[in-house]
Design a protein that fits this description.
Oligomer: single chain
CATH superfamily of the largest domain: P-loop containing nucleotide triphosphate hydrolases
Number of helices: 9
Strand content: 25-35%
Number of domains: 2
Protein name: ABC transporter ATP-binding protein
Distance between the termini: 49 Å
Bound molecules: adenosine-5'-triphosphate
CATH topology of the largest domain: Rossmann fold
InterPro entries: AAA+_ATPase, ABC_SmlMolc_Importer, ABC_transporter-like_ATP-bd, ABC_transporter-like_CS, ABC_transpr_FbpC, Mo/tungstate-bd_C_term_dom, NA-bd_OB-fold, P-loop_NTPase
GO molecular function: ATP binding
Structural class: alpha+beta
CATH class of the largest domain: Alpha Beta
Number of strands: 20
Keywords: ATP-binding, Cell membrane, Ion transport, Iron, Iron transport, Membrane, Nucleotide-binding, Transport
CATH architecture of the largest domain: 3-Layer(aba) Sandwich
Helix content: 10-25%
Shape: globular
Length: about 375
């Protein structure tokens, strides 16, 4: 870490039992979480689940109604008690709307928060951050001369330049087009890790959260429904909501027999479910391994999967999406989606062989 120009070392952010209501509406309902120094934590969830409200509480823009908020040893906020105002928190903020100062140049915007540095070093530090975010060439222009995405990059540079002890980012990449977004995410993650501050980042995009986060808090209706690493959320989802938040899945309801459920595409383990109970099985499209049936015939006996008919095949780019008709045990057709890597475009009507990748199939009580 470079050490922050705010003079305050990076420290752990802790929110305990936070609740927040707007009039009658409970927007945040008993949330506890922490952000360690150097760690990126993403608040992920559908629109209206309370992500922005939590971030605004961490920033001090909303008064805490219930619970407590600490940064390191310092109490930032207690309900009906002590409240440290936003500007005294040593925290960097960047929101969806860039909110740059219109009368200041790009460089002056970024240098604005650097009043702890001697004037001679402010300019150099601001330039350095504009370079990091690919905006150095626009240093002398004014915000109204920039596109939304460019403004967002300047806002990120402004938030990062003081190298604060904590960064709070609300959908900071939303105005960027897809290609630029990948680049700026990458640059921002590098910058955050270099500064060594903890970061709380709001996003509704699961892929963005997986890329940026060390840990993710997945929220729904004001509550954290699962908290863990990207791997834990994606590979060990605790509820059907967590599974589907990362993308549509194939579903099947069947009976648990010897800790397994038979689906049209193969057997799925259900170790936690009671014998004879009904199970809701969720199979990610990428859990279906699809091969031309000829190729499968050459494999040893016992590795033969189940056959399906191709209804439609679409090339998405890095993968191909297949719409398949799979016969169930009664001989009726069930329609499932498979996503396979690369270019794999069998003709409609063709027969293909299926196998299940067990790590991307999940069984819950029906
Ligand atoms: P989005 O992804 O759409 O920004 P979010 O998860 O950030 O959503 P919040 O902005 O925190 O959600 O809002 C949570 C809930 O509180 C929503 O139902 C919203 O309508 C409500 N809400 C937010 N701000 C206010 C406000 N100032 N007054 C009244 N209700 C509000």
């Amino acid at each position: 870490p470079l050490g922050s120009s705010t003079g305050m070392p990076a420290s752990r952010l802790s929110l305990q039992r936070v609740r927040h209501a707007y009039a009658e509406h409970l927007a945040v309902d008993d949330v506890s979480l922490e952000v360690m120094p150097g760690e990126v934590v993403c608040l992920l969830g559908p629109s209206g689940c309370g992500k922005t409200t939590l971030l605004r509480i961490a920033a001090g823009l909303e008064r805490l109604q219930h619970g407590e908020l600490r940064l390191g040893e310092e109490m930032l906020d207690e309900a009906e008690g002590h409240h440290v105002p936003p500007e005294k928190r040593g925290v960097g903020l960047a929101f969806q709307e860039a909110a740059l100062f219109p009368h200041l140049s790009v460089l002056e915007n970024v240098a604005f928060g650097l009043d702890n540095l001697p004037p001679s070093r402010r300019r150099a530090r601001a330039m350095q951050w504009l370079e990091q975010l690919g905006m150095a060439a626009r240093a002398d222009t004014y915000p109204h001369m920039l596109s939304g995405g460019q403004q967002q990059r300047v806002a990120l540079a402004r938030a990062l330049a003081p190298e604060p002890r904590l960064m709070l980012l609300d959908e900071p990449f939303s105005s960027l087009d897809a290609r630029l977004r990948e680049q700026i995410r990458d640059d921002t993650l590098h910058a955050l890790k270099r500064v060594g501050a903890g970061t709380l980042l709001v996003t509704h995009d699961p892929e963005e959260a997986m890329f940026m986060a060390d840990r993710i808090a997945l929220m729904r209706e004001g509550r954290v429904v699962q908290w863990g690493t990207p791997y834990q959320l994606y590979c060990q989802p605790q509820t059907p909501f967590v599974v589907t938040f990362f993308g549509a899945v194939n579903e099947w309801v069947g009976e648990v027999r010897e800790a397994k459920v038979m689906t049209p595409a193969g057997v799925v383990a259900a170790p936690a479910l009671a014998e004879g109970s009904r199970a809701r099985v969720m199979v990610r499209p990428e859990a279906l391994r699809v091969t031309h049936d000829g190729a499968l015939m050459e494999r040893p006996v016992g590795d033969v999967g189940i056959f399906a008919r191709v209804v439609m095949a679409k090339l998405l780019g890095r993968s191909s999406l297949l719409h398949l008709a799979v016969p169930d045990e009664k001989g009726q057709e069930v329609h499932w989606h498979a996503q396979v890597p690369g270019v794999f475009l069998p003709r409609a009507g063709q027969s293909v062989a299926l196998q299940l990748e067990p790590s991307q199939c999940f069984a819950f009580p029906a």
